[in-house]
Amino acid sequence: MTALVRHRLFWPAAVLLLLLAANVAFTPGFLSIEMKDGHLYGSLIDIFRFGAPLILVAIGMTLVIATGGIDLSVGSVVAISGALACLHISGLPDQNDVGGVLTAVGLALGLALVLGAWNGFLVAGIGIQPIIATLIIMVAGRGLAQLITDGQIVTVNSASYKLIGGGYWLTLPFSILIVLAVLALTAFLTRRLALGMLVESIGGNATASRLAGIRSRGLTVAVYAFCALCAGIAGLMISSNVSSADGNNAGLWIELDAILAVVIGGTSLMGGRFSLGGTVLGALVIQTLTTTIYSIGIPPETTLLFKALVVTVVCLVQSPAFREKVFQRRGRRRPAAPQATDDEKVEVPA
Amino acid sequence: MAPPAPILQMSGICKEFPGVKALSGVDFRLLPGEVHALMGENGAGKSTLIKVLTGVYDIDGGRITLNGQDVVFAGPLQAQQAGISTVYQEVNLCANLSVAENIFIGREPRRLGRIQWKRMRRRAAELLAGLDLHIDVSAPLSSYSLAVQQMVAIARAVDISARVLILDEPTSSLDSGEVEQLFRVMRRLKAEGIAILFVSHFLDQIYEISDRMTILRNGSLVGEYLTSELGQVELVGKMIGRELADLEKLEDRPPARTSEPLVQTEALGRSGAIEPFTLTVHKGEVVGLAGLLGSGRTEIARLLFGADHASTGALRIDGEPVTLRTPRLAMNRGVAFCSENRRAEGLIPDLTVRENIVLALQAMRGWHRPIPRRTQDELVDKYVAALNIRPADPEQLVRNLSGGNQQKVLLARWLILEPRLLILDEPTRGIDVGAKAEIQRLVAELSDGGMAVLFVSAELEEVLRLSHKVAVLRDRKLVAELPNDDGLTTGVIMETIASGGRA
Amino acid sequence: MIVFKRMSALLLAGVTIMAAAGCGSGGDTTASAGGADDGKITMGFAQVGAESGWRTANTKSIQESAKAAGIELKFSDAQQKQENQIKAIRSYIQQKVDVIAFSPVVESGWDNVLKEAQTAKIPVILTDRAVDSADTSLYKTFLGSDFVEEGRKAGKWLVEEYKDSTDTVNIVELQGTTGSAPANDRKAGFAEVIGAESKFKVIASQTGDFTRAKGKEVMEAFLKSNPDIDVLYAHNDDMGLGAIEAIEGAGKVPGKDIKIITVDAVKDGMQALADGKINFIVECSPILGPQLMDLAKKVVAGEQVPARVLTEETTFTPEQAKAALPTRPY
């Protein structure tokens, strides 16, 4: 039991279950999943499907945060990628042409990679603080997206493109399959191969990592590029889902949700140790929260307040320091050692 | 004369971490107006006891009384308010603020809400003058040496609450003059009736300054002794729990020097860091670097490892000219470097002991070629056993280890690379006598096995004992290269440093 | 402590960059000195930004009709910042243009700059959005849509559509951005009309932020939690278009199983209307240009103009949409 409670994914998982339970209370059929036209259909599937772009962006963000950085530009990259792909497809003589759609996807993801590499170059090559370096594309990128779409909403009518964000394959929404594939790839790269440890090492102590022979510059650039790639895929998904690219609104504020998902998942903003599973849980918590708001029927005026309250509770419950304070009187032993050494660093000047 | 009543009394203190019993039934008392040394090997429980006392950790058992009253501190701030202040080895002040601001941060003298800067500076200057320190208090803290920063931290601590002062390894980064200055301050505070808890690995310092000592071993109390009644040999025996006559004996090294040079520098230098120097390290040779703090010892080490770029001169490894632009290139050539700054330049605190040990090897292989887990476990187990790393749990986070064991983890990181030149920068600083002897013996064994070692240490005895030859530095310049024959003594080295090699 | 300081420094730097980025685009207002007395009317126009397709069409309409009416137009884009807009208006005052027109980014905080214009004897026309100044003499007229009326039009169509039915009509509503004037007013106007009959029930109402993606997401959730939806009322076409996808995804037929009313009449919406997926669209026209130029000429000539001028707007049924589509400018 205590081992379960101590598991670092226990609290986000608990919050997720609680939210789902609240939904079941309001909508009894919430958990039911049925077959419709050969597709799985139900609220749980919806949560995954609508959460898919956020999960993708958050996965990339996790690695960036693990290096001790942050990427504010993902929202703009989402918009740019969707805009470029839709623009290309809208110019095709046959919008259903698979080759043309693949070219569009390639173009969009290629541009996303370039933007990510640029971020990485600014951070690792020039040494600009990540929050500033990525702010550049956050601001300028949305302008670029508007430039691509000419300020309009670019509508496409392509069944092949629609597959990415709105289609089904093997009874499952295609977007969920994409997320699973990216997640599996990321888990393989970081946990099966040694990427994860090296990234955690850079985030944990950059100087020491350099002196241990880690080529942190190249790795950092790669991580930012990967993050932008994830955002690019998310951008394709969002625009494909509604068959249109909206340079102004696509991916707006998704960077904040992604950062929140990473934090809820237990990865420290200071860098170092990260948890992909935690991030996915965190993103699902956020998406479930949104769905809950719709199904419980919370009036729009109080939506943000409600969200803020839940997020505050989640973050508090997540924080070992807070739990320690609240549960202190129970007189139980706690796993105090790891964070205690952290406290030591801050307390002395006081 | 009957001793005064203790100001602080800890009895039956127990503290357990998952899987580790850190303290079991420890008693400790502190009398006003004494310097009390807390002794023990790394991992004996000294730091844990201090953290329990200051409320960083809560206690699982036992009680603490301050001035006869039971106290429980929820954190260091509360402890401080009750009169217990701590100054750590690594000064934890705000380096970019001025000295005066650091002393008064959070409690600035104010009138009508506005900070009275002038009054603040005057009071800060008075306070430091009371510690015999006359410096410009409006300059940023970072412009002063570590020793001065420490004094400032002490001044702040004493000014806030002046009953119990805990000094956790304050001297490990200070030179002897600075240590003297610190001791003067400690004596002054002691005369004012402040109880000082002092932790240091330097036995000479313990005997110079402390009145009484409490010895811990493996989380248990060994005993409390008057310093004047316990000899050094007895003390060491009690700390490590066995007779260690062999510790003292590391026989004069047979000259293991082969004629084959491994690393040669020709007027290698870096402007602003180290003047061009020419030095040859042979295979199987231990070269000691001696010199005062800031004389360029670390700078030489960093150049040879590619951590900094040379601005002049040439470097040959195996007779081949090489340019080391990154540490990685040096590692490819078989050079390893264990930095003096464990925390900032060595450890990845969030990673486990295992991960820290295999990190450099993994970096060499690249991210796409992971070291199979079984190989990792074998390597790690081997070095954990060989270096006697405690606790012997590879999955423990390295930040939870004591200083000496962290140092051994770093050594293990480089040893599994089987380097040909191992550069050790202050590998024994801040660690206890037992671990120190182990590391010294290891260096000797490695060089006997054919590894070249560049050994940097502020302790001349150590340098002398281990090295085949000693390179002497002064003012960022290599001034002499002395073969370690029978004629070489610490006195000779010191004279060389003093004269700049002109003698 | 140190970490906190560093963070705040970063944030500060961030804000500065943002501000700088914002200022940069306001700069093109000082391009040319105003030619005041060559008989040709000079108009300074401070646009909100380019935040939507609607706005782009609005900008285009103003630029084109200025050219057609022989009015020299000085145009600036405020990037949705009041600060930039005030700067632009001040520079128009300095250049002594003949008339100033602008779409206020927000409702309040305009008194000072409007007084400056008044002192300089330059008439001001508001377009599209209103200001909340108590002193209405600060501007000559307000040209724009009546969002409440748009909501009423939508409601009236619905009442008419169900006039023979006595069953309960379950309505879901996709609101615009929470707190924005169009969202508030379109909701109010609609509620006012359908409130008269108890058979109309709004069973769910949630914001869709005026975007397709959000419209689709919210509609899916509506469909899950409410099995019997008869009517969807969306505050703009885009949300309606997103909702159509959601309805199709749930295996229902938009326009038949669920009747759809939207506001705006942009091209994609009109196409959907013509295809029968939307049943009724209330126009909210961005084509303010011709009316604006007309008003400007009158104001400069010293003629009296009404304090409130409504945009010429209509409504569309599928048949009207089919007819209008080929000639629709936006």
Automatic annotation (TrEMBL), chain A:
Pfam families: BPD_transp_2 (PF02653). One of its GO terms (cellular component) is plasma membrane. The keyword GTP-binding does not apply. It is a multi-pass membrane protein. One of its GO terms (molecular function) is transmembrane transporter activity. The chain crosses the membrane at residues 40-65, 72-92, 98-118, 130-148, 168-189, 219-238, 250-269, 276-298, 304-322. It is found in: Cell membrane. This is Sugar ABC transporter permease. It comes from Planomonospora parontospora.
Automatic annotation (TrEMBL), chain B:
It is a peripheral membrane protein. It is found in: Cell membrane. It comes from the Bacteria. Residues 8-243, 257-500 form the ABC transporter domain. Pfam families: ABC_tran (PF00005). GO terms for molecular function: ATP binding; ATP hydrolysis activity. Its main location: membrane. GO terms for cellular component: plasma membrane. Gene3D superfamilies: P-loop containing nucleotide triphosphate hydrolases. Keywords: ATP-binding, Cell membrane, Membrane, Nucleotide-binding, Repeat, Translocase, Transport. The keyword Transport applies. This is Sugar ABC transporter ATP-binding protein. It comes from Planomonospora parontospora.
Automatic annotation (TrEMBL), chain C:
It comes from the Bacteria. InterPro entries: Peripla_BP_I (IPR028082), SBP_2_dom (IPR025997). It comes from Planomonospora parontospora. It is found in: Cell envelope. One of its GO terms (cellular component) is cell envelope. The keyword Signal applies. Residues 1-21 form the signal peptide. This is LacI family transcriptional regulator. Residues 49-303 form the Periplasmic binding protein domain. GO terms for molecular function: carbohydrate binding. Keywords: Signal. Belongs to the bacterial solute-binding protein 2 family. Its main location: other.
